[in-house]
UniProtKB/TrEMBL annotation:
Monomer. Residues 1-51 form the Translation initiation factor 3 N-terminal domain. Its main location: cytoplasm. This is Translation initiation factor IF-3. Transmembrane segments: none annotated.
């Protein structure tokens, strides 16, 4: 419409039974639109809710190791890291040094590089190994494809749980309802062994 005086804009809004809504107050001149304000608020609330639902919460799991770790313990910890990455979570791997181990940081570096090479198909190194006091830290993140499949799996599990309460409470064919089972137990039809 172009630049219109305020009185004329208000008159136009009243003529078509709409509201005059200021969309960009900081612009010079301020930008206004003719619209149904209630509908605008409702749609913006829907968009905000949808944006919150689609927003991904980043979870960082932590796995602590020692430089002289037993092979079986290493495999167990690696299994946890793999599980976390498959779930779409980031993993902070910490190597804890004690005593004289602090003078040999290459042991921790070698261990972190070994872990990195064994999980390359699931994730990548987001933060390279670095010494932080007594600890050496590396952050692993899942590849986009792994993360997308984890999100899809979570969504499908969530959809499967949404069943009406009547369906889950109904007994299966051939089963007796819960109330009748309790009544049968009260009549004394079962034998008690007396804890022998």
């Amino acid at each position: 419409m172009g630049i219109v005086p305020l009185e004329r804009a208000l008159q136009l809004a009243a003529d078509v039974d709409l509201d005059l809504v200021e969309v960009a107050p900081m612009a010079r001149p301020p930008v206004c639109k003719l619209m149904d304000f209630g509908k605008f608020k409702y749609e913006s609330a829907l968009k905000a809710r949808e944006a919150r639902r689609n927003q991904q919460q980043t979870v960082i799991k932590e796995m602590k190791l020692r430089p002289k770790i037993d092979p079986h313990d290493y495999e167990t910890k690696k299994g946890h890291v793999v599980r976390f990455l498959k779930a779409g979570d980031k993993v902070k791997v910490t190597i804890m040094f004690r005593g004289r181990e602090q003078s040999r940081p290459e042991l921790g570096y070698r261990l972190l590089r070994r872990l990195e090479s064994e999980i390359t198909e699931l994730g990548y190194v987001e933060a390279a190994p670095k010494q932080d006091g007594r600890n050496m830290i590396m952050v692993l993140a899942p590849h986009r494809a792994v993360k997308a499949s984890a999100v899809a799996a979570t969504a499908s599990r969530g959809a499967g749980r949404e069943r009406p309460a009547e369906e889950s409470a109904a007994p299966a064919v051939g089963e007796t309802p819960a109330g009748e089972t309790a009544a049968a137990g009260e009549t004394g039809t079962t034998a008690d062994t007396g804890g022998q």
